[in-house]
Amino acid sequence: MFSPQGPSLRELCVQALSSVEHGYDLLAPKFDHTPFRTPESILGATAHTLSELGPFDHGLDVCCGTGAGMLVLRSLCRGRVTGVDFSAGMLGRARSAHPGATWVRADARALPFTEDFDLAVTFGALGHFLSAERPALFEGVYRALRPGGLFTFPIGAPPPVTSVSHWVTLGFDLAMRVRNAVWRPPFVMYYRNSPLTAVRDELAAAGFTATAAALTGSGRHRNGSPRYWLILARKPADAG
Questions:
Q1: How far is CA 49 from CA 45, 52, 172, 214, in A?
Q2: In CATH, 38-234 is 3.40.50.150
């Protein structure tokens, strides 16, 4: 549908009527040929910003998918880099693309790590978590980080109400809510369920000190507002 190498419309429909895990198992072989993969511009802008805060030792990519975040971690981390995802299909593709990394299959709402990492990232994953699930995600990342560790991720800024993007994302989210109301298993993917203020509050509740900076290099909306913010959530150095 998106390119000759990408999934067909039928394949996307089958995926959308599956669970999140099985849907991504199905999509994995063609995922990198879709617009759902985090663009290189976002990865590069994130790595550039973090380069001023590092270097770091061990890095973790939460909900790693096919491993795009490894391009950021490997440019910043001097030690082990690890990806975690609950889709076996996505992990299989990531393992093939980045054989030197460590891969763990696990649910991000119950991460199996304790103070193992200095840097944690995630790209394009928050939409797969309902607001009631985000605290468990953030608490798990907090446990996974060493004292002083950093959790960071780009988050889309709301587009102006007059823009096409506003109405496209609104329409998509409404369609997904209708789909999940009438079809099981649910497929959780929403573009507008992670407002910046709520995410910062939830990170603070998990123990982080969280700030947000405009992600330079990711572009701006026509009204001049940034397209993306970069969340920088620091675990206190004296955390016990």
A1: 6, 6, 31, 10
A2: yes
